[in-house]
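G., before I forget:
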Amino acid sequence: MEVTKVTNATRVFKIGEVETKALRGVNLSIGNGEFTALVGPSGSGKTTLLQLIGLLDQPTTGNVTINGQDASNLNRNQRADLRKNAIGFVFQFFALIPTLTAYENVEMPLLLNGTKPAERKARVNQMLEAVGLTDRAHHRPDQLSGGQQQRVAVARALATNPKLILADEPTANLDTENGKQVMDIMQKLNRETGVTFVFATHDPRVIKYASRVVTLQDGLIEKDVRANGK
Amino acid sequence: MPLIKAQTFTATENHASTIFMMLQDDGQADAVASAIQSAGYKILTWRDQNALIVQFEDYAGAFMIIFYLIVLGITATVVTNTLVMAVFERTREIGILAAIGMKGRGIMAQFLTEAALLATGGVIGGLIIGGAAVAYFTIYGIYIGDYGLTGVLFEDRIYAHLTLGNTINLTLATYIITLVASLYPARLAARMEPVEALHGLGD
Protein backbone atom coordinates (compact mmCIF):
# COMPACT_ATOMS: atom_id res chain seq x y z
CA MET A 1 0.00 0.00 0.00
CA GLU A 2 1.30 3.48 -0.81
CA VAL A 3 1.94 5.95 1.98
CA THR A 4 2.13 8.93 -0.33
CA LYS A 5 1.47 9.60 -3.97
CA VAL A 6 2.41 12.68 -5.95
CA THR A 7 0.56 13.16 -9.23
CA ASN A 8 1.60 15.60 -11.96
CA ALA A 9 2.95 17.99 -9.36
CA THR A 10 4.40 21.30 -10.46
CA ARG A 11 5.65 24.06 -8.23
CA VAL A 12 6.36 27.49 -9.60
CA PHE A 13 7.87 30.21 -7.42
CA LYS A 14 7.33 33.78 -8.54
CA ILE A 15 9.72 36.43 -7.27
CA GLY A 16 8.78 39.76 -8.78
CA GLU A 17 8.40 39.14 -12.50
CA VAL A 18 10.67 36.11 -12.48
CA GLU A 19 9.13 32.64 -12.40
CA THR A 20 11.18 29.66 -11.25
CA LYS A 21 9.86 26.21 -12.02
CA ALA A 22 11.12 24.09 -9.12
CA LEU A 23 9.04 21.05 -10.14
CA ARG A 24 7.82 20.49 -13.68
CA GLY A 25 5.37 17.62 -13.37
CA VAL A 26 6.46 14.96 -10.92
CA ASN A 27 4.76 11.59 -10.46
CA LEU A 28 5.94 9.53 -7.51
CA SER A 29 4.43 6.82 -5.36
CA ILE A 30 6.10 5.74 -2.12
CA GLY A 31 5.08 2.40 -0.66
CA ASN A 32 4.75 1.43 2.98
CA GLY A 33 8.06 0.63 4.65
CA GLU A 34 10.28 2.01 1.87
CA PHE A 35 13.62 3.68 2.66
CA THR A 36 13.81 6.11 -0.25
CA ALA A 37 16.47 8.65 -1.14
CA LEU A 38 15.65 11.69 -3.26
CA VAL A 39 18.91 12.68 -4.88
CA GLY A 40 20.05 15.33 -7.29
CA PRO A 41 22.13 18.49 -7.41
CA SER A 42 21.18 21.69 -5.60
CA GLY A 43 18.18 23.26 -7.30
CA SER A 44 16.98 19.95 -8.72
CA GLY A 45 13.75 20.19 -6.68
CA LYS A 46 14.28 17.51 -4.04
CA THR A 47 13.60 19.79 -1.06
CA THR A 48 10.56 21.27 -2.82
CA LEU A 49 9.24 17.76 -3.49
CA LEU A 50 9.84 16.81 0.15
CA GLN A 51 7.96 19.94 1.27
CA LEU A 52 5.00 19.06 -0.95
CA ILE A 53 4.90 15.48 0.36
CA GLY A 54 5.13 16.89 3.92
CA LEU A 55 2.21 19.28 3.27
CA LEU A 56 4.43 22.18 4.26
CA ASP A 57 3.77 23.66 0.83
CA GLN A 58 1.17 23.16 -1.87
CA PRO A 59 1.76 22.27 -5.52
CA THR A 60 0.97 24.90 -8.14
CA THR A 61 -0.78 22.14 -10.09
CA GLY A 62 -1.23 18.45 -9.42
CA ASN A 63 -1.95 16.78 -6.12
CA VAL A 64 -0.48 14.90 -3.18
CA THR A 65 -2.13 12.12 -1.21
CA ILE A 66 -1.10 10.92 2.24
CA ASN A 67 -2.35 7.49 3.34
CA GLY A 68 -4.86 7.65 0.49
CA GLN A 69 -6.20 11.07 1.54
CA ASP A 70 -6.04 13.77 -1.12
CA ALA A 71 -4.49 16.86 0.47
CA SER A 72 -5.44 19.23 -2.39
CA ASN A 73 -8.66 20.44 -0.82
CA LEU A 74 -7.55 20.54 2.78
CA ASN A 75 -7.39 23.86 4.58
CA ARG A 76 -4.46 25.00 6.77
CA ASN A 77 -5.82 23.37 9.92
CA GLN A 78 -6.64 20.10 8.21
CA ARG A 79 -3.15 19.97 6.70
CA ALA A 80 -1.69 20.68 10.17
CA ASP A 81 -3.77 17.80 11.58
CA LEU A 82 -2.56 15.44 8.86
CA ARG A 83 1.06 16.47 9.47
CA LYS A 84 0.61 15.99 13.20
CA ASN A 85 -0.80 12.49 12.89
CA ALA A 86 0.80 11.02 9.79
CA ILE A 87 4.15 12.68 9.12
CA GLY A 88 7.38 13.21 11.03
CA PHE A 89 10.13 15.60 9.98
CA VAL A 90 13.90 15.62 10.32
CA PHE A 91 15.57 18.79 9.05
CA GLN A 92 19.10 19.57 7.96
CA PHE A 93 19.69 22.03 10.82
CA PHE A 94 18.23 19.73 13.50
CA ALA A 95 15.37 22.18 14.12
CA LEU A 96 14.91 21.59 17.81
CA ILE A 97 13.28 24.17 20.06
CA PRO A 98 16.37 25.71 21.72
CA THR A 99 14.77 26.44 25.08
CA LEU A 100 13.42 22.91 25.57
CA THR A 101 15.35 19.85 26.72
CA ALA A 102 15.75 16.76 24.54
CA TYR A 103 12.92 15.13 26.51
CA GLU A 104 10.63 18.14 26.03
CA ASN A 105 11.43 18.39 22.32
CA VAL A 106 10.44 14.75 21.82
CA GLU A 107 7.36 15.30 23.98
CA MET A 108 6.14 18.30 21.94
CA PRO A 109 4.29 16.40 19.15
CA LEU A 110 2.72 14.14 21.77
CA LEU A 111 1.44 17.20 23.63
CA LEU A 112 0.00 18.52 20.38
CA ASN A 113 -1.93 15.33 19.66
CA GLY A 114 -3.27 15.09 23.20
CA THR A 115 -1.47 11.94 24.37
CA LYS A 116 -2.12 11.23 28.07
CA PRO A 117 0.76 12.05 30.47
CA ALA A 118 1.66 8.47 31.47
CA GLU A 119 1.61 7.27 27.88
CA ARG A 120 3.55 10.34 26.82
CA LYS A 121 6.29 9.74 29.36
CA ALA A 122 6.62 6.10 28.34
CA ARG A 123 6.73 6.98 24.64
CA VAL A 124 9.33 9.75 25.07
CA ASN A 125 11.57 7.46 27.12
CA GLN A 126 11.12 4.68 24.56
CA MET A 127 12.10 6.98 21.69
CA LEU A 128 15.10 8.46 23.51
CA GLU A 129 16.25 4.92 24.27
CA ALA A 130 15.79 3.95 20.61
CA VAL A 131 18.19 6.72 19.56
CA GLY A 132 20.58 6.05 22.45
CA LEU A 133 20.04 9.33 24.30
CA THR A 134 18.41 8.29 27.57
CA ASP A 135 21.30 9.82 29.52
CA ARG A 136 20.93 13.13 27.63
CA ALA A 137 17.19 13.51 28.14
CA HIS A 138 17.43 16.62 30.25
CA HIS A 139 20.04 18.46 28.20
CA ARG A 140 19.10 21.40 26.03
CA PRO A 141 20.12 21.41 22.34
CA ASP A 142 23.09 23.71 23.00
CA GLN A 143 24.42 21.09 25.42
CA LEU A 144 24.28 18.34 22.78
CA SER A 145 26.55 17.60 19.82
CA GLY A 146 25.22 17.94 16.27
CA GLY A 147 24.82 14.18 15.99
CA GLN A 148 22.95 13.98 19.28
CA GLN A 149 20.68 16.86 18.24
CA GLN A 150 19.84 15.07 15.01
CA ARG A 151 19.09 11.87 16.93
CA VAL A 152 16.71 13.87 19.15
CA ALA A 153 15.07 15.16 15.95
CA VAL A 154 14.68 11.56 14.73
CA ALA A 155 13.14 10.59 18.09
CA ARG A 156 10.76 13.55 17.87
CA ALA A 157 9.78 12.66 14.29
CA LEU A 158 8.88 9.12 15.39
CA ALA A 159 7.20 10.04 18.69
CA THR A 160 3.63 10.04 17.40
CA ASN A 161 4.19 6.81 15.49
CA PRO A 162 3.67 8.32 12.04
CA LYS A 163 3.73 6.17 8.92
CA LEU A 164 6.00 8.53 7.06
CA ILE A 165 9.22 10.29 8.06
CA LEU A 166 10.63 12.99 5.78
CA ALA A 167 14.26 13.95 6.26
CA ASP A 168 15.86 16.85 4.41
CA GLU A 169 19.63 16.39 4.17
CA PRO A 170 19.71 14.71 7.60
CA THR A 171 23.48 14.30 7.63
CA ALA A 172 24.54 17.48 5.83
CA ASN A 173 25.74 19.14 9.01
CA LEU A 174 27.27 16.07 10.62
CA ASP A 175 30.72 14.56 10.46
CA THR A 176 31.14 11.09 8.99
CA GLU A 177 30.82 9.23 12.30
CA ASN A 178 27.73 11.13 13.47
CA GLY A 179 26.19 10.94 10.00
CA LYS A 180 26.67 7.16 10.02
CA GLN A 181 25.13 6.89 13.50
CA VAL A 182 22.04 8.84 12.43
CA MET A 183 21.61 6.79 9.23
CA ASP A 184 22.12 3.52 11.15
CA ILE A 185 19.40 4.54 13.60
CA MET A 186 17.02 5.56 10.82
CA GLN A 187 17.61 2.31 8.97
CA LYS A 188 17.20 0.27 12.17
CA LEU A 189 13.89 2.00 12.97
CA ASN A 190 12.74 1.47 9.39
CA ARG A 191 13.43 -2.24 9.62
CA GLU A 192 12.07 -2.72 13.14
CA THR A 193 8.93 -0.57 12.95
CA GLY A 194 8.23 -0.56 9.22
CA VAL A 195 7.96 3.24 9.17
CA THR A 196 8.54 4.74 5.73
CA PHE A 197 11.52 7.07 5.32
CA VAL A 198 11.99 9.52 2.45
CA PHE A 199 15.13 11.60 2.63
CA ALA A 200 16.68 14.20 0.35
CA THR A 201 20.44 13.99 0.07
CA HIS A 202 23.37 14.26 -2.26
CA ASP A 203 25.78 12.47 0.06
CA PRO A 204 26.90 9.17 -1.56
CA ARG A 205 27.51 7.67 1.92
CA VAL A 206 23.84 8.21 2.72
CA ILE A 207 22.53 7.09 -0.65
CA LYS A 208 23.97 3.61 -0.12
CA TYR A 209 21.52 3.05 2.77
CA ALA A 210 18.50 3.58 0.51
CA SER A 211 16.37 0.73 -0.78
CA ARG A 212 15.17 3.05 -3.55
CA VAL A 213 16.92 6.01 -5.13
CA VAL A 214 14.88 8.64 -6.98
CA THR A 215 17.05 11.05 -8.95
CA LEU A 216 15.73 14.51 -9.75
CA GLN A 217 17.12 16.86 -12.35
CA ASP A 218 15.71 20.29 -13.19
CA GLY A 219 12.41 19.59 -11.47
CA LEU A 220 11.76 16.23 -13.09
CA ILE A 221 12.37 12.64 -12.02
CA GLU A 222 15.26 11.43 -14.11
CA LYS A 223 15.75 7.97 -12.63
CA ASP A 224 13.92 5.78 -10.13
CA VAL A 225 16.01 2.76 -9.10
CA ARG A 226 15.28 0.18 -6.40
CA ALA A 227 17.99 -1.71 -4.54
CA ASN A 228 17.10 -4.87 -6.45
CA GLY A 229 17.83 -2.96 -9.64
CA LYS A 230 14.19 -2.58 -10.82
CA MET B 1 -7.77 79.54 69.63
CA PRO B 2 -10.77 79.30 72.00
CA LEU B 3 -13.86 81.31 70.96
CA ILE B 4 -13.87 83.60 74.03
CA LYS B 5 -10.21 84.51 73.55
CA ALA B 6 -10.82 85.20 69.86
CA GLN B 7 -13.82 87.41 70.67
CA THR B 8 -11.78 89.36 73.23
CA PHE B 9 -8.89 89.69 70.80
CA THR B 10 -11.12 90.97 67.99
CA ALA B 11 -13.45 92.98 70.30
CA THR B 12 -16.55 91.25 68.91
CA GLU B 13 -18.08 90.47 72.33
CA ASN B 14 -20.62 87.68 71.91
CA HIS B 15 -20.48 87.63 68.13
CA ALA B 16 -18.85 85.29 65.63
CA SER B 17 -18.51 86.19 61.98
CA THR B 18 -17.30 82.84 60.64
CA ILE B 19 -17.64 79.26 61.81
CA PHE B 20 -15.45 76.59 60.21
CA MET B 21 -16.82 73.07 60.25
CA MET B 22 -14.40 70.21 59.66
CA LEU B 23 -16.02 67.09 58.20
CA GLN B 24 -14.63 63.58 58.38
CA ASP B 25 -15.71 63.01 54.78
CA ASP B 26 -15.23 65.90 52.33
CA GLY B 27 -17.74 64.24 50.00
CA GLN B 28 -20.50 65.14 52.47
CA ALA B 29 -19.84 68.91 52.18
CA ASP B 30 -22.81 69.68 49.92
CA ALA B 31 -25.21 67.56 51.99
CA VAL B 32 -24.16 69.19 55.27
CA ALA B 33 -24.35 72.67 53.69
CA SER B 34 -27.94 71.99 52.62
CA ALA B 35 -28.84 70.61 56.05
CA ILE B 36 -27.63 73.68 57.97
CA GLN B 37 -28.92 76.20 55.43
CA SER B 38 -31.05 78.87 57.16
CA ALA B 39 -31.85 82.59 56.87
CA GLY B 40 -29.21 85.01 58.01
CA TYR B 41 -26.28 82.67 57.33
CA LYS B 42 -24.15 82.36 54.28
CA ILE B 43 -23.03 78.76 53.91
CA LEU B 44 -19.93 78.15 51.82
CA THR B 45 -18.45 74.73 51.19
CA TRP B 46 -14.73 74.24 50.72
CA ARG B 47 -15.38 74.15 46.99
CA ASP B 48 -17.02 77.59 47.06
CA GLN B 49 -14.16 79.02 49.08
CA ASN B 50 -11.45 77.50 46.87
CA ALA B 51 -12.98 77.78 43.43
CA LEU B 52 -9.60 78.32 41.84
CA ILE B 53 -8.14 75.19 43.38
CA VAL B 54 -11.22 73.14 42.44
CA GLN B 55 -10.89 74.33 38.86
CA PHE B 56 -7.19 73.49 38.93
CA GLU B 57 -8.01 70.03 40.32
CA ASP B 58 -10.45 69.44 37.46
CA TYR B 59 -7.75 70.41 34.96
CA ALA B 60 -5.27 68.19 36.78
CA GLY B 61 -7.76 65.28 36.54
CA ALA B 62 -8.07 65.77 32.77
CA PHE B 63 -4.29 66.06 32.49
CA MET B 64 -3.85 62.79 34.41
CA ILE B 65 -6.18 60.99 31.99
CA ILE B 66 -4.07 62.26 29.08
CA PHE B 67 -0.95 61.23 31.00
CA TYR B 68 -2.38 57.70 31.54
CA LEU B 69 -3.22 57.45 27.83
CA ILE B 70 0.33 58.47 26.89
CA VAL B 71 1.82 55.89 29.29
CA LEU B 72 -0.54 53.16 28.03
CA GLY B 73 0.24 54.16 24.43
CA ILE B 74 3.96 53.80 25.13
CA THR B 75 3.24 50.45 26.82
CA ALA B 76 1.30 49.25 23.77
CA THR B 77 4.09 50.33 21.40
CA VAL B 78 6.77 48.64 23.51
CA VAL B 79 4.74 45.41 23.78
CA THR B 80 4.00 45.32 20.03
CA ASN B 81 7.63 46.06 19.18
CA THR B 82 8.96 43.44 21.62
CA LEU B 83 6.63 40.74 20.34
CA VAL B 84 7.18 41.56 16.66
CA MET B 85 10.92 41.20 17.31
CA ALA B 86 10.23 37.91 19.12
CA VAL B 87 8.23 36.66 16.12
CA PHE B 88 11.06 37.45 13.70
CA GLU B 89 13.72 36.04 16.01
CA ARG B 90 11.71 32.86 16.42
CA THR B 91 10.52 32.41 12.84
CA ARG B 92 12.27 29.05 12.56
CA GLU B 93 10.75 27.90 15.87
CA ILE B 94 7.31 28.87 14.56
CA GLY B 95 8.06 26.88 11.40
CA ILE B 96 9.08 23.84 13.44
CA LEU B 97 5.92 24.00 15.55
CA ALA B 98 3.78 24.38 12.43
CA ALA B 99 5.62 21.48 10.76
CA ILE B 100 4.92 19.13 13.65
CA GLY B 101 1.25 20.03 13.51
CA MET B 102 0.60 23.07 15.69
CA LYS B 103 -2.29 25.02 14.22
CA GLY B 104 -2.35 28.78 13.73
CA ARG B 105 -4.55 29.31 16.76
CA GLY B 106 -2.09 27.33 18.92
CA ILE B 107 0.78 29.55 17.78
CA MET B 108 -1.37 32.64 18.36
CA ALA B 109 -2.30 31.39 21.84
CA GLN B 110 1.39 30.91 22.62
CA PHE B 111 2.22 34.53 21.80
CA LEU B 112 -0.85 35.86 23.63
CA THR B 113 0.13 33.81 26.68
CA GLU B 114 3.62 35.29 26.53
CA ALA B 115 2.07 38.78 26.33
CA ALA B 116 -0.14 38.02 29.34
CA LEU B 117 2.91 36.85 31.30
CA LEU B 118 4.72 40.04 30.23
CA ALA B 119 1.75 42.07 31.50
CA THR B 120 1.66 40.10 34.77
CA GLY B 121 5.36 40.77 35.35
CA GLY B 122 4.85 44.45 34.54
CA VAL B 123 1.84 44.78 36.82
CA ILE B 124 3.56 43.00 39.74
CA GLY B 125 6.71 45.11 39.28
CA GLY B 126 4.62 48.26 38.95
CA LEU B 127 2.60 47.46 42.06
CA ILE B 128 5.75 46.82 44.10
CA ILE B 129 7.71 49.87 42.93
CA GLY B 130 4.67 52.17 42.63
CA GLY B 131 3.22 50.87 45.90
CA ALA B 132 6.47 51.63 47.74
CA ALA B 133 6.61 55.15 46.26
CA VAL B 134 2.97 55.84 47.11
CA ALA B 135 3.47 54.45 50.65
CA TYR B 136 6.41 56.84 51.15
CA PHE B 137 4.49 59.89 49.93
CA THR B 138 1.40 58.82 51.89
CA ILE B 139 3.48 59.01 55.09
CA TYR B 140 5.88 61.88 54.35
CA GLY B 141 4.03 63.82 51.66
CA ILE B 142 5.53 66.33 49.23
CA TYR B 143 6.42 69.80 50.52
CA ILE B 144 4.65 72.43 48.42
CA GLY B 145 5.39 75.62 50.42
CA ASP B 146 3.26 77.70 52.74
CA TYR B 147 0.10 78.16 50.73
CA GLY B 148 -1.75 79.25 53.89
CA LEU B 149 -0.18 82.71 53.53
CA THR B 150 -2.02 83.24 50.24
CA GLY B 151 -5.37 82.83 51.95
CA VAL B 152 -5.96 79.34 50.57
CA LEU B 153 -6.79 76.67 53.14
CA PHE B 154 -3.93 74.30 52.46
CA GLU B 155 -1.31 72.46 54.43
CA ASP B 156 2.33 72.90 53.45
CA ARG B 157 2.45 69.26 52.23
CA ILE B 158 0.28 67.20 49.95
CA TYR B 159 0.01 63.46 50.53
CA ALA B 160 -0.41 60.57 48.12
CA HIS B 161 -3.68 58.68 48.34
CA LEU B 162 -3.89 55.30 46.63
CA THR B 163 -7.40 54.10 45.92
CA LEU B 164 -8.42 50.52 45.20
CA GLY B 165 -10.37 51.77 42.19
CA ASN B 166 -7.28 53.37 40.62
CA THR B 167 -5.23 50.23 41.23
CA ILE B 168 -7.83 47.90 39.70
CA ASN B 169 -8.56 50.20 36.74
CA LEU B 170 -4.89 50.63 35.82
CA THR B 171 -4.17 46.90 36.27
CA LEU B 172 -7.08 45.95 34.00
CA ALA B 173 -6.13 48.67 31.50
CA THR B 174 -2.56 47.34 31.39
CA TYR B 175 -3.77 43.78 30.71
CA ILE B 176 -6.22 44.89 28.04
CA ILE B 177 -3.74 47.20 26.31
CA THR B 178 -1.02 44.52 26.40
CA LEU B 179 -3.29 41.84 24.94
CA VAL B 180 -4.67 44.16 22.27
CA ALA B 181 -1.13 45.30 21.38
CA SER B 182 0.00 41.67 21.09
CA LEU B 183 -2.79 40.69 18.68
CA TYR B 184 -0.90 41.94 15.63
CA PRO B 185 2.38 40.04 16.32
CA ALA B 186 0.42 36.95 17.40
CA ARG B 187 -1.56 36.97 14.13
CA LEU B 188 1.65 37.58 12.22
CA ALA B 189 3.11 34.40 13.75
CA ALA B 190 -0.08 32.39 13.29
CA ARG B 191 -0.39 33.26 9.59
CA MET B 192 3.15 32.29 8.64
CA GLU B 193 3.29 29.50 6.10
CA PRO B 194 5.34 26.62 7.52
CA VAL B 195 7.55 26.47 4.45
CA GLU B 196 8.31 30.18 4.64
CA ALA B 197 9.00 30.02 8.37
CA LEU B 198 11.36 27.13 7.79
CA HIS B 199 13.04 28.94 4.89
CA GLY B 200 16.76 28.49 5.00
CA LEU B 201 16.61 25.00 6.46
CA GLY B 202 17.10 23.34 3.08
CA ASP B 203 18.39 24.07 -0.39
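The mean pLDDT of chain A is 91. The helical segments of chain A are 46-53, 76-86, 102-112, 117-130, 146-158, 176-193, 204-207.

More on Monday.
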